[in-house]
Amino acid sequence: MQETAVKKRSAKGGISLESRRARTAWLFLAPSLIVIALVAGYPLFRTIQLSLTQTNLLQFPLKSNFVGLLNFKFLVQDAQWWRSVQNTVVFTVVSVAAETLLGLGIAMLVNAKFPGRGAMRTAMLIPWAIPTVVSAQMWRWMYNDVYGVINDMLMKLHLTDKAYAWLANPRLMLPAVISVDVWKTTPFMALLLLAGLQSIPTELYEAARVDGATPWQNFVRVTLPLLRPALLVALIFRTLDALRVFDAIYVMTGTTPNTMSMAVYARQQLVDFGLLGYGSAMSVGIFVIIGLFVVAYVVSLGVEVD
Amino acid sequence: MKRIWLALLVLVGGLFGGAALAQGVTLHISCGAVGNELTLCKDESQAWAQQTGNTVVVVSTPNSSTDRLALYQQQLGAQSDSIDVYQIDVVWPGILGSYFIDLGKYFNQSDLSGYIPALVTNDQYEGKQVAIPWFNDAGLLYYRTDLLKKYGFDGPPTTWDQLTQMAQKIQAGERAAGNDKFWGYVWQGNAYEGLTCDALEWVYSYGGGTIVDPQGNITIDNAKAAAAINMAAGWVGTISPPGVTSYQEEDARGVWQAGNAAFMRNWPYAYNPGQSADSPIKDKFGVAALPKASTPDGQNAATLGGWQLAVSRFSKHQAEAADLVKYLTSPQVETERAVKGSFLPSRLAVYDDPQVIQQNNFIHQLKPVFASAVARPATATKQKYNQVSSAFWTAVHNVLTGQAQANQALAGLKTQLTRIKGTGW
Prior knowledge:
By secondary structure, chain A is mainly α.
């Protein structure tokens, strides 16, 4: 009753309280909206604009011809592009799945109380703290077929009797690169999930124990449902990150079609070949594909948008 | 009266001329800064400045050649006169050629004949001599002198067949002696620019051309080129480690310098680390020209790298700039650079200079290599060189990794290059 009275009164006075509040809200939001428009909106607009042109960066003076959707027509017909999309999707699905499973295991382990837990949590982050370019180069050497430590270890443990050329054999290249990403990013996943685990109240486990739940029931009925929000955030975060993969692949296997990701291919067109138009069309393609993944997550997992 | 005017004119002219001479002009030169490159460049430019009464300012540029190219593109695109003399990479005359003056005006044929011919041709853009070669790089064969002697060979192989046989014998022997990590031959097989350099050497040594000829015709789809690439594919897993198709320069050097290879293809830079005090192969190796094909039209081939000097068309002092280029690429300056900085001269005569032989005999040994130098088809393919090179190395890499047959891969490459070429390079 009171509310309607207030509304009526202010309606008479001109601006309602609600619209005044809305205006204040917009005012407060404006700085961040402007920043987003400048750092994300404008580049996106320029990329889409460039993707409709034929522009060669290496040519002087810079000429830009409007060609409509021609670049996209080429893109759809470009077998190498679809190969790189396939590589990226395989990379993303396999690496994110492995990182999630391993990350969950590690998070539960370091969530338990044991002596040296703090040191363990810190040590666990080391792979993630090393810059990717550095660790990728390190792995490149470790994978070497003649002096690499991985072959040496496998042979000393009698798991294989010959050295494998991990980064040269077309069938082993992508698995080798994915393993490095898993090694590097699992700690990050574990960290995100650990935070989720710590937010689960211990009373729930106590109650479960009183009810006589087995550890497995504990995990499936208590941990997983309560971990779901953190798990979804971590999954989306990692998936979008993995779809943009560039550095590990670029350093370890360069522009080989067998492992080239979408980002590596786009960079080659943009930087090495100076093809701003075609490279931009590719960037728009990447944008669309990442967008599809986001939509798929939101729809299938019922993530709350607001 | 007339005489007085004339005298006055002479006087005034003399004054102005004298003033111009005394003041001189100020030139800006961009130099690389790898190792002692910058110091040498400063000293040499200073020497020229003192001789001619001009002033030279040395502008240092990024070490990464990609970044350096981007900087040059900005400067030249903005028609800036802030740099007069540019130090440019061997694959850039095609990209930047339209922004440089024709140095043919200042260098006559006999001047140019002193430089390595393949480089002089490489530095011509649309009939103009847009750059002058300064110092080089080239693909070399490194070989283990001790192992060659041990297995009864007199010297390095001169044909690929000999190399293969020698590598097989040494590899088998060393493995039997207990080193199961030993390989015959290491090189650069990763899918990157380095593979274009290696593969160009194989193809050219078989008489299979240079991918795209200087006139811009696509020549790669031929039987000799296919034979050359098949030969290399046959090495993978036999005399070369299976991982060689992921090797870049440093990977190959890693195997070689640990003493685990009989032969290596690499650039001259690998010589000094190999001779360092803690190197297991110190004083146990030599360098030679890469072998040629055993076929009648087989020839030696060494892919060229290196740096050139060019004068900007926006320079306000083009004559002086050309004179500076002439001075920096003169025999005495190149000798000094070879002795003090181990820079490989762009003049063949300097390789035989007594000072060079005495101080840096390694450079003297490389002379025959540069006689067989071959340039990548960068000048002919202009701005599209990177696309051509990438298509080439991808095709070759597919053959090396057993994903395609050489003749099919080259036929596909031809189609692809035709598409990249479009209506012209």
